[in-house]
Amino acid sequence: MSDQLDRPLEPSHGISRRQLVLGGAAGIGALTLGNLDSAYAFVNRKAADKTIAFAQPDTSFAGYPLLLKGVQDYAKSRGYTVLQSHADAKLDAQLSEINTWIAQGVGGIIVLPLDNNAMLPLIKKAHSAGVKFLDYSDDALPGVDGWVIFNNLQGAALVGTYVGNWVKKTLGGKAKVALLTHEIQKTGRDRIHGAVTAMQKVAPGAKVVAKHEGVLAAQCLPVAQSMLQANSDLNVFICIADDGALGVERAFSQTHPSAARKKDMMIVGFDGTVPVFQKIVSGSAIRATGVLDLIKVGSASAQATINAIEGKNPKKINFPYVLSSQTGPGLATTKAFIKRYKAITG
C-alpha cells in the first residue's frame, strides 16, 4: 500500500493553492483570498467524497492482504481511493484514526470494532460530518449505514460438527477441550459458543476445561503454552481465528509430542488463510477451519460502503462459510483455495 493513501487528503488532480491562484485562463486568478479558501475546501471535499476507509485493525493476520486486495480492486473499479488501518489491534489507535478520517471528511468508513461501545459516539460524529459508518463482521452497532457480516452460527456448526465427529471416531467420544475466544465481539461469541454446541451435540463427552481470550498468534502462543502445562492431556483447541490456531500449533509442537499424541490432538480455527490451509494439507494438528472467501469479503466491504455513500443497494451483505478439512469434500475445498489464493498473491 502506498504511503500516499494514508496521508491527509489533498485536492484531486494535484491542484495546489498556487495553481488555483495562477489559473487565470479559467477565471481562478480573480478569486479573492476568501474565495480561494472556499475553492480549496471544495476541491478537497470532492477528493474526500471519493475516499473510503477500511478500518480492519488486525493487519498482521495472514488473510489481511487478501481482504485488502478485494477492497482496493473493487474501490478502484468505481473510482474510489482506499485508506487502510494502522491501528495494530490497539483500541486507542483505532479511535484516533477513525477520528482523523471523520475530520478529513472521507465518504465512508467500514469498521471492525475493537470495542463496540467505543464506536457509539463515533457513529454520531461521523453522521454529523456527513460520513457514512458501516459495521464489519458484526451486526452489533446501532444506527450504522450498512454492514458486511458473516453467517457465524452456520460456520460454527460446520466446524463444531466436524470436531465432534473427529472426537467420536478418534477418541471414542471423549475429549478435553480448550477455547481461544474473543468474547467482546459478537462474531467471537457466535463462532466459539456455536462450535461448542455443535461439537457436544455429536460428542457429549467432549468437555471444555480451559478458556482464555486470544485472537492473534502472538497472543495465543503463551496462552496455549500455559494451558498445555496445566492440562497435558488436552485433545482439542477451538480458536476464534486461524492466526490463533497457528500460535496454538506452535505451542503444541514445542511440547515435542509423540506420534500417538499428535494423532490425538485437533486444532481448528476460522477465516481460511493460506498458512492454515497448508497446515491442514500437510497433516498437522490443525485439522479444519471455517472458511470465508476473503477476497470476496473485501470486495463486498468496499461495495457496501460505496453504495451507502451513493444511496444504492446492497448496503447489507451476509457471507456464508465453507469447511476446509483434512478429509472428505473439505480437503478438495482446501486445495482449491490454496491454488486460487496463490495465483493472486504469488
Defining traits:
Rossmann fold, six-stranded mixed sheet, alpha/beta, 346 residues, 2 domains, 51% helix
- What does the main sheet amount to? 6 strands, parallel
Q: How far apart are the termini? A: 16 Å
User: What is the number of helical segments per DSSP (H or I, 4+ residues)?
Assistant: 13
Find the structural class using helix and strand composition: alpha/beta
Mean pLDDT score, rounded?
89
- Give the tally of structural domains: 2
The total of beta strands comes to 12
The strands making up the biggest β-sheet line up spatially as 2-1-3-4-5-11
Q: H/E element string?
A: HHEHEHEHEEHEHEHEHHEHEHEEH
Report the uncertain regions: 1-33, 36-43
What best-fitting shape do the alpha-carbon axes yield?
elongated
CATH superfamily membership of the largest domain: Response regulator
As a whole number of angstroms, the C-alpha radius of gyration is 23 Å
Look up the CATH topology of the largest domain.
Rossmann fold
Strand content: 15-25%
**According to CATH, what is the class of the largest domain?**
Alpha Beta
The percent range for helix content is: 40-55%
Q: Which architecture of the largest domain would the CATH scheme give at its second level?
A: 3-Layer(aba) Sandwich
